Amino acid sequence: MTNPLLSIVIPTMPDRQHKLRRLLQSLARNTADRQRWEVLVVVDGSDQRPLEELRELPEKVARQGLTLQERRGPAYARNQAILQARGEWLLFLNDDAELAPASLVEHLRLIERDPSARLAYLGRFDWAAELLESPWRKLLARTSLVFHYDRLQAGELYPYNCFWTCNLSVRRDWVMQVGGFNELLTEAIHEDLELGYRLQRKFGLRVQAALHIPATHHHPLTVRDFYQREYRSGRVVRQIRTLLPDYFAATFGQYTYLPPDFSTTQLLQEHCGTPLLAQLRLALQELYHWEQPHPDDPSAHALVAMFWLQFPLKQLCWAAGYGDGDFEAFWQQLQP
């Protein structure tokens, strides 16, 4: 049997079976030749029930399902799929994605246009329309709080900090030559950018913005979810500073001024009752107000204003993860 050109790699977890089902159903609706792509699903955990969703795929589509005996994180899960993949190229998808019917056709078209190009192709990852019921969700969707799509231009080339494995295709042999994802990074954050960094260093890889290839993102984020994500990001970067000093210096060098004993808990205690803490609480109170469903769209001016109003809070939550303390205790200190 002829090997497929494209191997689709999807890490998931036992409690995300419904999300995986929607993604696989969207792949079943794709219009690409079904012998040119395969699907590899890896369950990060010993529960095999999510693999039942592979039945959603058309009969002619090759598929593999793998389960891990213990939780190891998405980097390890993707690596297991890469080892089993038969395609010359990999397409990384989040399990909370939903692809448009022509998305695989477009990835294949770009790949075949110049198979030797030192490029990865990044498609869109737009928040699902039904999630945009509040000004807060529209702020996430229309600014660079999570992804920087608002800064990308179609067809332009970008460095490794746009190597987002949510709708991205890249050559499999290159990924394998740099050792795949770094399995020391066990959380679903920074592990993709770090791989992109090594691919750029070894092969001069650039990420091309293929903004005509749509995917929908089904992941509702509350205000608390978002700032806990920032906290996790800071915690992982602290780990990266020790484990991967070259990548840290290239990506987060501006944070080398933070001392090893940096403590945001102490910082908040020192500023208790001061205008600084009052301002942070005021920003958080306004964000809670924005989180409520509202039929009207916020203006572009309002979005920009809120983006910058919340920015010190975003930075502080990141620094809290980088520093010390428990997120719950830290978050409670910030409540209005």
Order of strands side by side in the largest beta sheet?
A: 3-2-1-4-9-6-10-8
Radius of gyration: 21 Å
Per DSSP, the total helix count is 12
Give the H and E element order: EHEEHEEHEEHEEHHEEHHHHHH
CATH architecture classification of the largest domain: Alpha-Beta Complex
The chain-level structural class is alpha/beta
The fourth-level CATH homologous superfamily of the largest domain is Spore Coat Polysaccharide Biosynthesis Protein SpsA, Chain A
Percent of residues in helical segments?
40-55%
CATH class category name of the largest domain: Alpha Beta
Strand content: 5-15%
Description of the structure:
This protein is of the alpha/beta class. The protein has two domains: about 210 residues, Spore Coat Polysaccharide Biosynthesis Protein SpsA, Chain A; about 110 residues, no CATH class. About 45% of the residues lie in helices and about 15% in strands. The strands form two sheets. It has an eight-stranded mixed β-sheet, with helices on both faces. A three-stranded mixed β-sheet has the order 5-11-7. The longest helix has 23 residues. The chain is globular. The model has no long low-confidence stretch (mean pLDDT about 90).
Reconstruct the topology from this structure.
Layout: E1 6-12, H1 17-28, E2 37-43, E3 62-67, H2 74-84, E4 89-93, E5 97-99, H3 103-113, E6 119-122, E7 126-127, H4 135-142, E8 157-158, E9 167-171, H5 172-177, H6 191-203, E10 206-209, E11 215-217, H7 223-243, H8 245-252, H9 264-270, H10 275-290, H11 300-322, H12 327-334
